[in-house]
Amino acid sequence: MSNLIIGLTGGIGSGKTTVTNMFQALDIDIIDADIIAREVVAPNSYALEKIVEHFGNNYLTEQGQLNRAKLRSTIFSSQDAKQWLNNLLHPLIRDEIIKQTKAANSNYCILVAPLLVENNLLHLVDRVLVIDVEECTQLKRTLARDTSSADEIKAIMASQASREQRLAKADDIINNDGDNLAQVQQQVSELNTTYHTLAAKL
């Protein structure tokens, strides 16, 4: 069981996956809040049944999966719908995060949560690691990898915590603004040593 839980976060396009993969290569257990969020609404799940009950059958695809695009546009345009969905999903996601962090075997584990600050999950972690980049870098990277337009990406960025809000919560920061992966790897390596040391003291 991991004694130390590190919350890894950052805005869209900041390079969370790149950094997470580097920690994983060091045999650190990773708990991914996005994967958990998808699993709690899997076909035949309690949450999916409740969503269909509340919003209707047209929120299912022909394969019986959640129609994410339709749900996303509904909650983007209705605060009440968003609140209802959050009230349903957040406790389920939180319980599963706690279960998975307790089951982790590495000295410390990492909870990857893009919305760690926004969804108030800070109490689930011991330290916060922010992957920090300039906002123009976020936009450029996301445009390069996604089909979304610049306006859509800016809207996502505006809905997330600001760079300043994230950094205000950070215990540790990895600067990922350049294209130098060796520098990022070096920062990961140093933090890995720090985290093992901290875990040993618990």
From TrEMBL:
Q: In which pathway does it act?
A: Cofactor biosynthesis; coenzyme A biosynthesis; CoA from (R)-pantothenate: step 5/5
The terms describing its cellular component in GO are: cytoplasm
Where does the source fall among the domains of life?
A: Bacteria
- Residues holding ATP: G13, S14, G15, K16, T17, T18
Q: Is Kinase among the key words of this record?
A: yes
Stored InterPro entries: Depp_CoAkinase (IPR001977), P-loop_NTPase (IPR027417)
Its top-level enzyme class, in one word, is: transferase
Q: Name one Pfam family in it.
A: CoaE
Catalytic activity from the UniProt record: 3'-dephospho-CoA + ATP = ADP + CoA + H(+)
GO BP, sorted A to Z:
coenzyme A biosynthetic process
Q: Which UniProt keywords apply?
A: ATP-binding, Coenzyme A biosynthesis, Cytoplasm, Kinase, Nucleotide-binding, Transferase
Known EC number? 2.7.1.24
Q: Name one GO molecular function term.
A: ATP binding
Q: Where in the cell is it found?
A: Cytoplasm
- Keyword Cytoplasm in annotation: yes
Gene3D superfamilies per the record? P-loop containing nucleotide triphosphate hydrolases
Matching PROSITE patterns: DPCK
| PANTHER family from the UniProt entry | BIFUNCTIONAL COENZYME A SYNTHASE-RELATED (PTHR10695:SF46), DEPHOSPHO-COA KINASE-RELATED (PTHR10695)
**Family membership:** Belongs to the CoaE family.
Describe the task this protein carries out.
Answer: Catalyzes the phosphorylation of the 3'-hydroxyl group of dephosphocoenzyme A to form coenzyme A.
- Protein name per the record: Dephospho-CoA kinase
Give the organism the record lists. Answer: Litorilituus sediminis
Upper taxonomic lineage: Bacteria, Pseudomonadati, Pseudomonadota, Gammaproteobacteria, Alteromonadales
Q: Which gene encodes it?
A: coaE
